[in-house]
Amino acid sequence: MKVTVFGTGYVGLVQGAALAEVGHEVCCIDVDPAKVAALEEGVIPIYEPGLDRLVQENAAAGRLTFSTDPAHGVAHGRVIFIAVGTPPGADGGADLSHVLAVAQTVGERMEAPRLVINKSTVPVGTEAAVRARIAEALAARDRAELDFDVVSNPEFLKEGSAVADCMRPDRIVVGVTRDDSEALLRELFAPFNRNREKMIVMDPRSAELTKYAANCMLATKISFMNEIAAIADRLGCDIEAVRQGIGSDPRIGYHFIYAGAGYGGSCFPKDVKALIHTARAAGCEPHVLRAVEDRNADAKTAIFEKMQAHFGARFGERGLKGRTIALWGLAFKPNTDDMREASARVLMEALWQAGATVQAYDPQAMEETQRIYGSRDDLRLCGTKEAALSGADALVVMTEWRMFQSPDFEAVREALSEPVLFDGRNLYDPERMQGHGFTHYGIGRGARAPGEVKMDQPRTASATGTASAAE
Ligand SMILES: NC(=O)C1=CN([C@@H]2O[C@H](COP(=O)(O)OP(=O)(O)OC[C@H]3O[C@@H](n4cnc5c(N)ncnc54)[C@H](O)[C@@H]3O)[C@@H](O)[C@H]2O)C=CC1
Ligand SMILES: O=C(O)[C@H]1O[C@H](OP(=O)(O)OP(=O)(O)OC[C@H]2O[C@@H](n3ccc(=O)[nH]c3=O)[C@H](O)[C@@H]2O)[C@H](O)[C@@H](O)[C@@H]1O
Question: Which domains are assigned to the chain?
Answer without folding.
Answer: 2-205 (3.40.50.720), 212-471 (3.40.50.720)
